[in-house]
Amino acid sequence: MLFNHVKLPSWITFILRSALLGVIISVLMLLLVPELRRGSGITLDWFAYESSAPEKLSYYNAVSHAAPAVVNIYSNSIDVQSSLFTQRSVERTRTSLGSGVIMTENGHILTCLHVIQNAETIFVGLPDGQLAAADLVGQDIHTDLAVLKIDVENLHVIPQLDDPDTRVGDVVLAIGNPLNLGQTITQGIVSRIGRNISSHFIDFIQTDAVLNEGNSGGALVDSNGYLIGINNANFKTVDNRRRLRDVDGVFFAVPYKLARRVMDEIIATGRATHGVLGFSATSMPNTIGIVINTVFPGGPSEQAGLQPDDVIMAIDGVAVKNVYETLDKVASSTPGTILTLEVRRNGETLNLPVTVAELGQQ
């Protein structure tokens, strides 16, 4: 039986075509818009204009975490000066300006010794405007650090890591009170670690984050706001007129691990000790070991038989990587500890036991 072709009315054809087009559009929307498949729908924000401006780089979060723990320190001392006219001594009160870092909830603050040295009174200005009297817990002349204590509740403690893993090239922020202008942030990078600014300690951080008078004792933090050092000083040199001049872009900080160890010892015993073996050395690039340059007369190393040009390969069985780590290990060793040095000399290997002395007492 033959069926004749039936022509549908135009309005039914329009509805069928519209329905088919709607199905096709719905399938495409489900494929292209994942939110529809999750049932979250499309909000008005979906149609909003998206700005083409990239997200700006900011250290706001780091500063927000660290800055409330950085305080101003004002210390008063009395200078006695002789008058040429009256032939009498005149007492003058001198006020020193510096910064400090809140390290514990109990109110312990780290600062630089030169900020509060010989002070009669010490006051700490908190970021919230409080002014608190501070007591000196102890000091360490070798690292130029001092520990203060204030009796204030609800203190903001600076974020800290056991090992900040500071590297050359890391972005750093220096927080302090330069020239009593109020809390100020400067930014730079780590230029070098293990910088030698004293005859025994080389464990200092060099940075180009600007420090001015008043920054000493403030915080050097990383880009996440964790404390990596206590700001100390800028590099100085003598010009051709034998005047002391500051050098731009070269500043130093005591690294966190050393500063924390010194603080903990001062809190526990009232003083900090530093081990020393009595030698200077140079790292060997891309190889294990350090080369001895000088053996100081009368020191532990000389007594143990260490000689110039010896190469220390290991200490207590642990390979020596560089001078920085070696002197840090020695400095953190308790005086009286015996360390065994594995030394290479003229192709032979020697094991030399050396008794750690206390820095300043040997």
TrEMBL record:
Protein name: Trypsin-like peptidase domain-containing protein
Entry-linked SUPFAM superfamilies: PDZ domain-like, Trypsin-like serine proteases
Species this protein is from: Fluctibacter corallii
Family named by the database record: Belongs to the peptidase S1C family.
Record-annotated PDZ domain positions: 266-323
InterPro entries: Chloro_Bact_Ser_Proteases (IPR051201), PDZ (IPR001478), PDZ_sf (IPR036034), Peptidase_S1_PA (IPR009003), Peptidase_S1_PA_chymotrypsin (IPR043504), Peptidase_S1C (IPR001940)
Pfam families, sorted: PDZ_2, Trypsin_2
Membrane-spanning intervals of the chain: 12-33
Family matches, as Gene3D superfamilies: 2.30.42.10, Trypsin-like serine proteases
Keywords assigned by UniProt, alphabetized: Hydrolase, Membrane, Protease, Transmembrane, Transmembrane helix
Keyword Magnesium among UniProt keywords: no
